[in-house]
Amino acid sequence: MIIKSIDSQLIIKKFALNGYNIHPNAVDLIKKAGIDIDRIVDEVCKRADGCFIITPDDVIRILNEIKNRAETPLPKSKVKESDDKRVRKSESVNVIKDVTGKSTCRGTIEDFINYFNSRYEKISKIFRGRLTQIPIGSVWKVKSEKVDVVGIVGNVKEISDDKAIFELEDKTGKINVTATGKLKEVAMELLGDEIIGVSGSLMGRGIIADRIIFPDVPVNDKKLKKDFRIVFISDTHFGSKTFLKDEWNSFLKWINCEVGDNRVIEIAESVKYLIICGDLVDGIGIYPEQDKEIEILDINQQYEFSAEQLDLIRKDIKIILSPGNHDAVRQAEPQPALPKEFSSLFPKNVKCVGNPCFVDLEGVKVLIYHGRSLDDVVSRIKRLNYSNPHEAMIELLKRRHLSPMYGNRSPIAPENDDYLVIDEVPDILHSGHVHTYGTAFYRGVFVVNSSTWQSQTEFQKKVNLNPQPGNVAVYNPGGDVIRLRFYSG
Ligand SMILES: [Fe+2]
Q1: Angstrom distance (rounded) from CA 450 to CA 428
Q2: Could you tell me which CATH class the domain 109-213 is placed in?
Q3: The domain 83-102+219-485: what is its CATH number?
Q4: What are the extents of the domains in the chain?
Q5: How far is CA 110 from CA 5, 107, 117, 413, 416, in A?
Q6: Residues with CB under 5 A from ligand 1 (ion)
Q7: What's the CA-to-centroid distance between 394 and ligand 1, angstroms?
Q8: 414 C-alpha vs ligand 1 centroid, how far in Å?
Q9: Tens digit of each residue's pLDDT (9 = 90 or more) over 439-473
Q10: From ligand 1's centre to the CA of 89, what distance in Å?
């Protein structure tokens, strides 16, 4: 079995709750034992006899005792019984925001104007009550020297080691903002086309900034307590020569409760939702010479194979499937859900949604976004990298926009309504695209980037992208986050 963890931290935590520290080698022994962790913790602690650190010898002694008592495997009938129970679970997926079936975009100049007006209106609303928001065209009429403005960022220029200048624009005008000292560093991380607030002093023909303010998310202190878990995956790239078949099959065995000790099976049994955040298939003609790296050369057959794979997942799990840039929908974001010709191939427990999509799962608000803009964010902000994708995702939350930079690597369709604005704060932000893994809690929002099921392609070698495949985040809203690893390379 390739499941590398139950996380070490979970084991350490369980001993800590019983008042014990545990030696790292003892943790490894428990992980390798493949026996219900709660049972080992219980038995080891019972015999710990007031010691402070649980040693490897303590664990070996208990493991031998358990072995001698002939460990009873989970009876098959028990698995069957819980299978039956699982079929009866009811799920609820309420799509709150999704462009599917609502696109108005024709690519006219008017569309672009409406799109940016929508972006500005939605985000400037977030600043209401926090800033006075003087229209930029009227700042010179204000008697006070201090002004607060909100506008779209343009043309950031580094003037010296200590100074940067950028433009800020709203519907009424444009003004230069000078940022010095620490604010210069903030200015140099501005992505362009995002909407920010500036508080500062009028000087010459512009503003000297005292503060640069991001719309950001308020602290989410909503108390979630759910008895189910959500599994986050993405970038399966079915049809690629580098699709990790063995690792995927291990994942299927786990999610279908076919492998693992009682604890691992219990985690799988509690899964009610599986979210797939784009790039279900490898697609055709997505990057130069991709045909050399594709196993299934026909897009229809790629989706047929995908449907077979999804059909192998137990049917009481609701699968929410959002597309990515390798899928067969328009490239520009927001992307609609996969068309009927493909979605009709999938089993009934699969719900196809757009990218991005804001869904409510029994009161848990999830914002699903494939993550193409992460390329722009990582290339613009020097302290970020692909190894920690969750940090780039946090920058999107701060900016309350999923793709702040217009006209870079992320094509945007100018809809009359900007679907990429994060107007409602989610409980979870889920992305993929960069093929690495990372999770974090930012102001109470669970942020997860969900790895891939494809090893490094020749193209990725050329662009120096080192994937971290086969990592799966399993989250119990209001409870724990478990990282399962199905990749041993
Ligand atoms: Fe991908």
Answers
A1: 13
A2: mainly beta
A3: 3.60.21.50
A4: 8-68, 83-102+219-485, 109-213
A5: 53, 8, 10, 13, 9
A6: 235, 279
A7: 20
A8: 24
A9: 999 999 999 999 999 999 888 888 788 999 999 99
A10: 32
